[in-house]
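Journal club prep, shared notes

We agreed each person brings one worked example of a sequence with its structure written out as tokens. Mine is endo-polygalacturonase. I'm keeping it raw so we can talk through how to read the token line rather than staring at a rendered picture. Sequence first:
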Amino acid sequence: MASRKPLQLLFFLALLFLSGGALAGAAAGSTTTNGTASAAGAAAPAAITRAGGIRSLASSSPSSQGGGVFSLDRYGARGDGRHDDTRALAKAWKAACASPRPAVVLVPGGKRYLLKLVRLAGPCKSSVVLTVKGTLVASPNRADWSDRDRRHWIVFSAVDKLTVNGGGAVDGNGETWWKHSCKINKAMPCKEAPTALSFHYCTGLRVQDLKIVNSQQIHMSIEDCTNVQLAGLSITASGTSPNTDGIHITRSKDVQVTNCKIKTGDDCMSIENGTHNLYVSKVVCGPGHGISIGSLGDDNSRAEVSGITIDTVQLYGTTNGARIKTYQGGSGYAKDITFQNMIMDNVKNPIIIDQNYCDKDKPCKAQGSAVEVSNVVFKNIRGTTVTKDAIKLNCSKNVPCHGITLQNIDLKMEGGDGAAESTCQNAKWRKSGTVRPQPCTSKN
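Then the structure, token by token:
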């Protein structure tokens, strides 16, 4: 029996040598989705040693398995905030989108990746997650955007089951755009500026745990999307920055927005034409222009908005609180809308419906048609106003607001300086519970 031990030992060593060589050879021959040799092969023995198994090898070369992590650095990104990393992101996205298995595009932490206009399009073969650990920063050079498309920076289109997350930041470098805005400098021509993040025709979209700062104009736009969840977002820009809406939603349905903090120079949320079945909760807003449905009916257009619930929102120092705004001359409807459980602190217009809204270079002319506003509930709203008109219902003479409910409202003048009031024009309303100020004590 003892004479067999050296033979067994030699056999074991030979088997170990052969299996190790086979593993190393397999690793060296692996390829990425675009057919190039994988760099993971050289690191395979170390990966096996650290984790002690073939599974670690597979994870170190995800593209050889048709899925996994596609890091920008692997596609030539510098991440120094100075060199253009647009192509690296586009390449990483293309590889991930072509993966037959769920894939992750990784923006590594601790770095700043400089980007120009980039379009990340589907359809993809499987679900894709863009995990932003570091910072995506817009080029500070406005010349990098042509007049053919000045409205976009990072655009996602036609992607099903897309998730964007990671806790990192998206920095629009907006200051250079703001100072050229006609709203800041009246001598400048009025031109569009990019939206930081645009999502077009996406289904099953999840955007969560991101910081979006200093966008050139709108921070995030959801357009023509279905089944959307936005959560844990921090959106920040100067209170004087022009047209920097926080979250813009249009032509989209089945959208949820929860646990977001928005501080901008325009609407914290702008809810526009084609939005149906939207639920917003636990949002903190201010500075900014508040939460607005509209503007609707611009340039004699038709607008349709329904099934909107704004619940559990705090507004601090905003121009408006709960607002619906429509242009004269429009058509369509804004209906089945609820603003509830809201706290107003130092807000200029806490509750306002304005069917005579105008944000044009020249005064808007009087027109007979209007977007019909109906079945709107303002419920459980309290706090302070800095103007006497805490409740303002300024509705169309030809298409009056109707089905307006004011329930359990308690709004006082900031600092106790006089009594708050309400005004009504062409509005059919009713009250429920205690409403302060008394609805429509004066009419003009």
